[in-house]
Automatic annotation (TrEMBL):
Cellular component, GO annotation: cytosol
Limits of the Fe-containing alcohol dehydrogenase-like C-terminal domain: 187-356
Native species: Shewanella salipaludis
Pfam (any one): ADH_Fe_C
Name of this chain's protein: Iron-containing alcohol dehydrogenase
Family designation: Belongs to the iron-containing alcohol dehydrogenase family.
Gene3D superfamilies tied to this protein: 3.40.50.1970, Dehydroquinate synthase-like - alpha domain
Gene Ontology terms for molecular function: alcohol dehydrogenase (NADP+) activity; butanol dehydrogenase (NAD+) activity; metal ion binding; methylglyoxal reductase (NADPH) (acetol producing) activity
Length: 385
């Protein structure tokens, strides 16, 4: 196992009815900006519940943070924070609203042009506003991590940043808030969490038994509960377990002391920026092809994945790896998520366009060995056609 430092300051308040905890979690004298997506929190009654819990505190709302939150929209929130002397941010929504709030928290206190935060992967953030979140869509893990992904629409660039100053102070996870999700978003959440786990697990062995078994348990939970949530969307226990899987998949625990990949995400971000495909859907397009192309260097972990996660015992090692990749693809398809670019009416021209964007963004040495260069990304995308 590699050496590591582990730090996670986010308090989790989990369960039905937990939104009322906001009264304990938000400072009594705070002037709060509640940040929202399009209209879901208003329609579902979650915003009303939040406002009731905030009680007498002075609060304003900023709505309109879109899926794949844009720099352009978020800068409007930064202006509001400054004009109204807001001192606490509260994200109410999915990963996009929470990621957007992280950017606002950092940008409002940033000296200079805030897009530079993305260009420096967050290393230049030295202060950030305090904030919490009420999660309504289990998927990204943003509610308990220090990462955020922001899209600059004019530049067609979707870039991530990380900084310990943008961990939420707290996140409220009420599984009943997920009952209103459209099936498409439920499926997206399952697949996004699945790929967060594989990005930290399907690399090469470093004798990290705890992280491996933890990852395998989470993957099996998703394989079991993913189809179940589609059949029984009103089942609280399924929702609760999926919510906690998605959080633990990317709250740092799994990724301690092990190599990371993230090539699937970086290639996927370009597909979203260019063609507006949902984040999770881009991952389902890329991962099976990436595992096929990179299987020689991932061989030991792929065999472990085949055996421990999918219980594949027949055939040669090559057969087992092929079967594990097939099962992964079939799982995504069973969740209603296509795994080929053709399903999005994209062809060879899209491969060229994504490669050009990867080059423009310096994404030329991806993966746990930094060997996913542009030629290999091209092979992966071509296989995904
Ligand atoms: O905008 P509203 O009206 O609120 O509707 C949203 C949105 O249309 C809707 N929704 C959310 N909760 C709902 C609901 N509808 C009904 N009932 C509810 N309870 O769902 C739609 C999608 O929401 P969004 O927040 O965009 O989805 P998700 O949570 O999947 O977030 C995706 C974003 O997170 C980034 C992605 O790149 C993408 O930009 N990621 C962030 C990560 C991180 N911070 O660590 C890691 C991930 O890999 C990911 O990259
Ligand atoms: Zn993701």
């Amino acid at each position: 196992m590699f050496n590591f430092d582990y730090y996670n300051p986010t308090r989790i308040s989990f369960g039905a009815g937990k939104i009322q905890d906001l009264d304990k979690l938000v400072p009594q004298d705070a002037k709060v900006l509640v940040l929202l997506g399009g209209s879901s929190a208003r329609k579902t009654g979650t915003l009303d519940e939040v406002k009731r819990a905030l009680g007498q505190r002075e609060s304003l709302e900023f709505s309109g943070i879109e899926p794949n939150p844009s720099y352009e929209t978020l800068m409007q929130a930064v202006a509001l924070v400054k004009a109204q002397q807001i001192d606490f941010l509260l994200a109410v929504g999915g990963g996009s609203v929470i990621d957007g709030t992280k950017f606002v928290a950092a940008a409002a206190m940033f000296d200079g042009e805030p897009w530079d935060i993305l260009l420096n992967w967050g290393a230049n953030v030295t202060q950030a506003m305090p904030f919490g979140s009420v999660l309504t869509l289990p998927a990204t893990g943003s509610e308990m991590n220090n990462a955020s992904v922001v899209t600059h629409k004019a530049l067609k660039a979707k870039l991530p940043f990380r900084n310990d100053l943008v961990y939420p102070q707290f996140s409220i996870l009420d599984p009943t808030k997920t009952f209103t999700l459209p099936e498409r978003q439920v499926a997206n959440g399952v697949v996004d969490a699945f790929v967060h786990i594989t990005e930290q697990y399907l690399t090469y062995p470093v004798n990290a038994a705890v992280q491996d078994r933890f990852a395998e348990g989470l993957l099996q939970t998703l394989i079991e509960l993913g189809p179940q949530v589609l059949r029984n969307p009103g089942d609280y226990d399924i929702r609760a377990n999926l919510m906690w899987v998605a959080t633990t998949a990317l709250n740092g625990t799994l990724g301690t002391g092990v190599p990371h990949d993230w090539a699937t995400h970086m290639i996927g971000h370009e597909l979203t920026a260019l063609y507006d495909i949902d984040h999770a859907r881009t991952l389902a397009l890329v991962l099976p092809a990436l595992l096929t192309v990179t299987q020689a260097k991932k061989r030991e972990k792929l065999l472990q994945y085949a055996s421990r996660v999918w219980h594949i015992t027949d055939g040669s090692d090559d057969d087992k790896i092929a079967a594990a990749i097939d099962n992964t693809r079939n799982f995504f398809e069973a969740m209603g998520i296509a795994t080929h670019l053709s399903a999005y009416n994209l062809g060879a021209e899209a491969v060229d366009a994504v490669i050009a964007q990867l080059q423009a963004h310096g994404m030329v040495a991806l993966g746990e060995h930094q060997d996913v260069d542009l030629a290999m990304s091209r092979d992966i995308l071509t296989l995904a056609l």
